[in-house]
């Protein structure tokens, strides 16, 4: 293992680093990116990790602290090492449980930085791929990435670990986004959902204003026919780290341009809840509250109107950087407004409002981003289309693979995609999918581009899967498992001089085992 210090290059000039050469260039310091870089560097490869923003870990340190484990026994390799090392930070071996699946973001990020430093990875913050012209190719090989600041990174192997798949797209690798039809791959769960039983309005909530127009956060456009394809994207949100420990608590912030009228549908939902149920909802029924250490909790979407900004992210996968930055800020505005409304609006039942105000942001988390998570939860954006595409059957019936490099087990889990006015003038959500799967094997092929397109490129995050299959495989432990395998695959490809499609799968598996 190479030892070295992580280089934080937030102030280095482009002149000093006009061109740099590496064995492996990893773009995106998501959890998958971190483990790809660590894996490659531990095998002696000169590795750089380029992060567009200022933090490592993506959602694994950006608010998703209640890890989506599924069947924990199938989580292995560097992914499991990460959770072991988090457990060591809390010294939980004292309790005969050495693995910490739930943790504070600052602790998770420290562990990832330690792993990068020990492996000798060069980490560069604020390195965003130059838009449209950032990828240089020769034939079926990427030769360099150029950043917005002018720095250029040449390499022998390139790995795209961003949630957006920007290197993939610029390299001309085939991809898609949105939902396939049920007919395309023979998937019963694909396309527009006929029934959306979860995170749904369970009683009538009028969706039109006094002029007969849809309320804010609703569309008049109904979904297509069940099973039809569309370009809808499952909702994004921010996973909030909150606390009810008074000395560490900051009141819910008021967002820019806040208007309570935006949350009229939420107010009507609360009113209907009280009328139908005969009681006020508790906070947990509006936002999923998952306790993590030291008096904190990971707050997620829950119920029909919550932190998911449904139907507002369709531009994101193919959007310019300016469009994405706008949507990022608009998601902040929406989620902050949701909590601010609950904490302050007179239409909120008093008992609920009192509970909401027992919580707030954490003084000791995200101190450089006003205590707000540094990562938008991009649950799904682009997805590569390789020679092999993982589909519903690979999660439900065809569970074994000859080129297995890890396992998954989390539900097929897509959040809602559309909130619309139904034929009765009531609010309705569409697109949520929560279907249990058995533990299944993940094939190496899932991160391979088509053989005819690229031979020195791996994709362990926006990998080759249908919307249905991606909704299970997209969990952070699996991104880390895939990243671990990508680092080993890069090492084998460079050692043998072969395209990534032609490395010895048996040697890859032997190394991973």
Stretches where pLDDT is under 50 for at least 5 consecutive residues are: 1-16
Shape designation = globular
- The Rg value, from CA coordinates, equals 23 Å
In terms of DSSP E residues, the strand content is 15-25%
The main sheet comes to: 7 strands, mixed
In words, what does this structure look like?
The chain has helices at residues 31-42, 77-89, 105-119, 166-170, 182-185, 264-277, 321-344, 350-356, 393-396, 467-473, 476-496, 505-512; strands at residues 19-27, 47-50, 122-124, 135-138, 141-146, 152-160, 175-176, 240-243, 249-250, 287-292, 296-301, 360-362, 383-384, 404-408, 412-414, 418-421, 427-430, 433-435, 440-443, 457-458. The two termini are 18 Å apart. The strands form six sheets. Strands 1, 2, 3, 4, 5, 6 and 20 form a seven-stranded mixed β-sheet that branches. The protein has a five-stranded antiparallel β-sheet with strand order 9-12-8-11-10, with no helix packed on it. Strand 16 and strand 17 (427-430) form a beta hairpin. The longest helix is centred in the middle third of the chain and has 24 residues, at 321-344. It contains twelve helices and 20 strands. The protein has 513 residues and is α+β, with helices and mostly antiparallel strands. Mean pLDDT is 96; it is low at 1-16. Helix content is 26%, strand content 17%. The chain is globular, with a radius of gyration of 23 Å.
């Amino acid at each position: 293992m190479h030892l070295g210090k992580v280089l934080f290059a937030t102030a280095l000039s482009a002149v000093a680093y006009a061109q740099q050469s590496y064995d492996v260039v990893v773009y995106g310091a998501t959890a998958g990116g971190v483990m790809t870089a660590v894996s490659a560097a531990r095998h002696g490869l000169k590795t750089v990790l380029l992060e567009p923003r200022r933090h490592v870990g993506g959602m694994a340190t950006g608010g998703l602290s209640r890890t989506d484990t599924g069947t924990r026994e199938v989580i292995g390799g560097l992914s499991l090492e990460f959770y072991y090392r988090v457990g060591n930070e809390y010294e939980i071996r004292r309790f005969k449980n050495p693995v910490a699946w739930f943790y504070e973001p600052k602790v998770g990020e420290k562990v990832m930085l330690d792993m990068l430093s020990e492996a000798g990875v060069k980490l560069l913050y604020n390195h965003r791929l130059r838009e449209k012209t950032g990828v240089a190719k020769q034939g079926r090989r990427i030769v360099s990435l150029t950043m917005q600041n002018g720095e250029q990174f040449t390499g022998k192997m390139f790995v795209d670990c961003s949630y957006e798949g920007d290197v993939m797209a610029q390299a001309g690798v085939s991809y898609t986004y949105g939902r396939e039809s049920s007919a395309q791959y023979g998937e019963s769960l694909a396309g527009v959902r006929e029934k959306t039983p979860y995170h749904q309005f369970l009683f009538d909530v009028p969706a039109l204003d006094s002029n007969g127009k849809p309320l804010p956060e609703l569309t008049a456009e109904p979904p297509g026919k069940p099973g039809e394809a569309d370009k809808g994207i499952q909702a994004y949100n921010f996973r909030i780290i909150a606390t009810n420990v008074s000395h560490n608590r900051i009141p819910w912030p008021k967002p820019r341009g806040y208007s309570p009228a935006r949350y009229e549908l939420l107010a009507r939902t609360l009113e209907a809840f009280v009328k139908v149920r005969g009681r006020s909802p508790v906070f947990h029924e509006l936002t999923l509250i998952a306790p993590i250490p030291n008096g904190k909790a990971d707050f997620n979407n829950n119920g029909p109107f919550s932190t998911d900004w449904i139907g507002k992210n369709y531009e994101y996968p193919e959007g310019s950087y300016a469009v994405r930055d706008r949507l990022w800020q608009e998601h902040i505005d929406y989620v902050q407004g949701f909590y601010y409304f609950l904490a302050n609006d007179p239409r909120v039942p008093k008992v609920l409002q009192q509970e909401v105000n027992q919580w707030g942001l954490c003084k000791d988390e995200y101190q450089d981003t006003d205590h707000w998570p540094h990562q938008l939860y991009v649950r799904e954006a682009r997805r590569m289309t390789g020679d092999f595409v993982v589909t519903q059957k690979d999660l439900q019936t065809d569970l074994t693979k000859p080129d297995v490099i890890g396992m998954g087990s989390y539900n097929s889990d897509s959040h809602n995609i559309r909130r619309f006015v139904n034929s009765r003038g009531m609010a309705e959500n569409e697109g949520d999918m929560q279907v249990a799967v058995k533990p299944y094997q993940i094939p190496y092929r899932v991160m391979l581009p088509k053989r005819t397109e690229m031979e020195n490129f791996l994709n362990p995050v926006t990998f080759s899967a249908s919307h249905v299959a991606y909704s299970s495989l997209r969990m952070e432990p699996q991104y880390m498992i895939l990243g671990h395998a990508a680092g080993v695959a890069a090492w084998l490809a460079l050692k043998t001089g072969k395209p990534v499609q032609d490395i010895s799968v048996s040697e890859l598996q032997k190394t991973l085992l």
